[in-house]
Design goal:
Elements: H1 2-14, H2 18-32, H3 36-52, H4 54-61, H5 67-81, H6 85-96, H7 103-117, E1 120-127, H8 133-146, E2 150-157, E3 164-169, E4 172-177, H9 178-199
Parallel strand pairs: 1-2
Antiparallel strand pairs: 1-3, 3-4
Helix pairs in contact: 1-7, 2-6, 2-7, 3-4, 3-7, 5-6
Length: 200
């Protein structure tokens, strides 16, 4: 509950920014048309498209592009990627207002709003190697028991851990890495040495 309340306060502040106002408008439109999860998926489709095709992103971001041409291009993109109508209209507005450079920030605010709406917490698992699909399923099953509400699990490689894992969600950190265990052992040894000095 603490994470949800923190997100709520954060969201009110984020909504005051330009990208926040766009994200709020999209969220309200998605809520009205019951397509909030579809919009989340559409953001990912668009991100993947722009990652693969920088030229298309540059073209759609061009201020010299006429509104009619821009809208037609977005219609083609939307049809190809099966965008929901709300997201397609939104992208046309964003593009026509020359705000496409804000799309990642808009998505960031939208994601926070969506996670609050669905009571979903982000959980990041850091490890030195990739987990297999079976390992991921087992780990996510365990995490579902630990966290209240839904969780969205993300995996990141961090070679500094040496071995083991570190789990982070909001202000909660579960550190089972070898690095932390070594540090704890060092601290324990230092404390024992200090105790020995006082005894002598």
């Amino acid at each position: 509950m603490k994470n949800v309340l923190a997100m709520s306060k954060n969201l009110d502040i984020l909504y005051t920014s330009l990208q926040g106002r766009y994200a709020k408008a999209l969220f309200l439109e998605g809520e009205k048309n019951s397509c909030l999860s579809a919009i989340t998926e559409d953001f990912t489709k668009l991100e993947n498209l722009f990652f693969k095709n920088h030229h298309l992103k540059k073209l759609l971001s061009s201020s010299s592009l006429e509104k009619i041409v821009s809208n037609e291009l977005w219609e083609t993109v939307g049809k190809e990627l099966s965008f929901c109508p709300s997201f397609l209209r939104f992208m046309q507005v964003v593009s026509n207002n020359a705000r496409l450079k804000l799309i990642n920030k808009i998505r960031y605010v939208y994601d926070i709003a969506y996670k609050q709406y669905t009571n979903t917490q982000d959980v990041v698992i850091y490890s030195t190697t990739e987990f297999s699909s079976i390992q991921r399923k087992k780990l996510e099953k365990l995490l579902a028991k630990f966290f209240t509400g839904k969780i969205s699990v993300h995996y990141e490689i961090d070679e500094k851990l040496l071995a083991g894992i570190k789990i982070s969600s909001g202000g909660t950190v579960i550190d089972a890495s070898v690095v932390t265990q070594i540090r704890q052992l060092e601290n324990f040894c230092k404390e024992k040495n200090l105790e020995g000095e006082y005894e002598n």
